[in-house]
């Protein structure tokens, strides 16, 4: 009887030791993989990261990422920004155009006021945060400006996903410069899931282990195209998206109402008859697009197109545009 009990105890201890060995081995593998993957943005290991990595190896992302990854890479290269940021929209929205959380919507989870500041249209009939190219340019311009302020890519990402004010309060509350995972472990910011999500996406993306497929999005209704585009007869313009995950309908309606008011106030400040004002001239530079030019001069894309009689959003280097304000 005593021998049998000793055998059971020995077996349990052996199994526990074997389990700990396997866990240690997996942790070491992930730690080494992160060090190998790390480039411009630090990818520190944390035990909580393993669950996210495991989840991401079995859950497919939207294949929109495969469609637009080359465009995102080019936009990053033009701004001399780290190539790892190509995975940020995966970490934020799963690359789903109609994914919403609170006031943040679209591929890059841009807040309404931030989107408006960088020249995107957000009103009751159209939300350019659901446009990959427009939202990518706006998001990268925003991140680039934040990096110029902080000189740290993780602080820039956390300020982007929360707000610069929230980050400043977190830094003051902590009393000293916190380690990256301190923001999550100590609940220093409201949104810290971007930390494990982004690190996991960068690691798995570099290892070629991310999966992509058809991921359902709410149906986007077709509405008349009042802004113009590559093909004004067939182009779909997205309505303000129904949230996949986010606020109650009451919150969403108030957001739409507020942003519509902002757009009206902005438009009222512009000249009612642009033809009576000559405006100033702007020469298109390499890498420019209407989104960036509009954001730079604090005007809308639709106004740029109207002032310059553009039938679509195609412009070329050396072209002269009129900016009327």
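^ Assign residues to that structure.
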């Amino acid at each position: 009887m005593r021998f049998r009990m000793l055998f059971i105890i020995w077996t349990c201890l052996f199994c526990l030791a074997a389990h700990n060995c396997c866990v240690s081995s997996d942790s070491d593998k992930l730690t080494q993989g992160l060090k190998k993957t790390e480039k411009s943005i630090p990818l520190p290991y944390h035990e909580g990261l393993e669950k996210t990595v495991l989840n991401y190896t079995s859950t497919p992302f939207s294949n929109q990422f495969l469609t637009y990854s080359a465009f995102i890479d080019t936009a990053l290269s033009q701004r001399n920004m780290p190539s790892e940021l190509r995975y940020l929209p995966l970490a934020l929205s799963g690359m789903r155009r109609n994914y919403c959380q609170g006031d943040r919507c679209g591929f890059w989870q841009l807040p309404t006021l931030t989107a408006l500041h960088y020249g995107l249209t957000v009103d009751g009939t159209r939300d350019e945060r659901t446009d990959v190219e427009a939202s990518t340019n706006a998001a990268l311009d925003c991140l680039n400006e934040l990096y110029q302020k902080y000189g740290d890519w993780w602080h820039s990402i956390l300020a982007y996903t929360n707000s610069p004010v929230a980050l400043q309060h977190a830094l003051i509350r902590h009393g000293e410069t916190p380690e990256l995972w301190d923001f999550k472990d100590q609940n220093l910011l409201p949104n810290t899931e971007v930390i494990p999500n982004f690190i996991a996406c960068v690691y798995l993306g570099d290892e070629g282990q991310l999966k992509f497929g058809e991921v359902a999005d709410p149906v986007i209704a077709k509405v008349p195209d009042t802004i113009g585009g590559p093909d004004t007869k067939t182009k779909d313009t997205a309505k303000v998206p129904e949230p996949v995950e986010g606020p109650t309908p009451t919150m969403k309606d108030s957001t739409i109402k507020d942003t519509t008011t902002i757009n009206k106030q902005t438009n009222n400040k512009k000249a009612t008859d642009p033809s009576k004002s000559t405006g100033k001239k702007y020469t298109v530079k390499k890498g420019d697009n209407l989104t960036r030019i509009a954001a730079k001069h604090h005007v809308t894309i639709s106004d740029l197109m109207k002032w310059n009689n553009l039938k679509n959003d195609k412009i070329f280097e050396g072209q002269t545009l009129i900016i009327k304000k």
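Residues 17-23, 218-277 have pLDDT under 50 and may be disordered.
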